Structures are given as C-alpha cells and as structure tokens.
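retry 2 of 3: previous attempt timed out while embedding protoporphyrin IX containing FE. Reduced batch size to 1 and resubmitted. Inputs unchanged:
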Amino acid sequence: MATANTMEKPFFLTSIGKKYLMGLTGLVWSGFVLGHMAGNLLMFYSADAYNKYGHAITSGAMIYAIETVLVLCLITHVVCAISLTLENRAARGHQRYAMTPNGSKGATLASRTMAIQGSVILAFVILHIATFKYGTYYETTVDGVVMRDLHRLLIEVFQQPGYVVWYLIALVFLGFHLSHGVGSLFQSFGLKNNANEKLIQRLGWAYGLIVAAGFLAQPIYCFVRGA
Ligand code: HEM
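retry 2 succeeded.
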C-alpha cells in the first residue's frame, strides 16, 4: 500500500525540479541584467539619450508584463533556493558530501557562498528599486516630449560615497553570483560534462565579469563626473 512517503511529488517539487526552476528563473534574470546593463551604457553617451531610452521602455504596457515576469521569477528563485538549502542541511546530517542547490559538491568559495550572495543581491534589488523607480521624480523635455529625468537622479544618487560603495560591493557579489550561476545552469540541465567543464567555467566568469564591469562603470563614472 502506498504511504505518504512513497507517493510521487509533482516534478517541480522534487530537488531536481527545483534546480530546473532555479536555472530557468536565473536565466530570465541573467538576461534582464545584461539588457539593463547594456541599456544603461547610454548614460555615457548623453543625458537625453539615456532619458529617451528610459522613457521608451517604461511608457508602454510591455513594462507591466516584464515586471510581472521578473517578480514571479525572483520569488520562485528565492523560494527554491531556501527550500534546497534546507533540504541540503537536513541531508548533511546523513551524508558527508551534500549537494548544493546548484547541484555541485559544495567545494568552491563561490558555490558555498551562493546563499549569502543571493541575500545581498535581493537586498540590493529592493533598495535599488526604492532609490530609482520610486525615487525623486525630476522632469525634463527631450525633442518636445516631457519625460522623467532619470539621468539627473543617477548623478545625484551617485554623488554620495555611501551609495557608490554599496553599489560596488553589491555588483561584485552579482558578478560572482552570475559566474557561478552559469555553471549551475548547465549542470542542472545536464549539459555539463568533463569535456566542456572548463569552457563552461570560463563562460561563467566572462559573463559575470562583463555584466559586473558594465554596471560598475556607471556609479564610478557618475561619481567622478560630478554634477
Ligand atoms: C549601476 C548599476 C545600475 C544602475 C545605474 C541602474 C539604474 C536603474 C534605474 C535608473 C532604474 C529605474 C528605471 C525606471 O523606473 O524607469 C532601474 C530599475 C531597475 N533596476 Fe537597475 N540599475 C543598476 C543595476 C541593477 C542591477 C544589478 C539589478 C538587478 C540585479 C537591477 C534591477 C533593476 C530592476 C528590477 C528595476 C525595476 C525595473 C522596472 O520594474 O521598471 N538594476 N535601474
């Protein structure tokens, strides 16, 4: 007779299912951060170009769809991470080498600190949205269109050393999280093997480095540039 223990769980509630969900939701956020970082590079071109870009992406209905997907992915990613971490902690009582939420044998510093990195990044995202999305609303007119002057807010925020230091710390964490996340993603989807392990690791480092460096340049530029 089947007992509660032997009944099959839905796939996405199993450990491997949660790893899949973490991989998929992580992939969505990885794509978002790359796009966000690249779009933000317009600040180096001109204030008008940056504001026009911000206005274009936030004035259509599409932004609500993007926000909904991002929020759902973030919640799923965090819930799965907490659940897998708790499962691993419990398993560690029984076996010496418990699997990390990323599917690897928790050896490297990057993999062992994924939960800490994730917590810092989550705190960063919440504060970041409060600072910019819900921050002071300045207005400007570009090509006869009245729009939000986000560029002015950026310069104002990144004139404050405390913000700049916090961004630098959080973005370094983001770089490590992305670097390791790429490897975990390939591992979760069974695409990592001995032959491509090194390549995937390099890909992860390159991705984390490009995103982190692109973002890091922004507060540094605003701070150095001045008002
Ligand atoms: C130096 C780095 C960054 C700068 C200068 C920056 C700038 C901005 C600005 C100006 C906005 C407001 C957009 C608007 O309301 O029109 C924004 C929104 C946002 N940023 Fe960033 N960002 C940075 C890094 C990041 C990172 C690393 C993440 C994620 C890990 C992130 C996630 C978001 C999210 C989720 C939103 C809200 C999008 C929305 O719902 O409209 N940002 N960012």
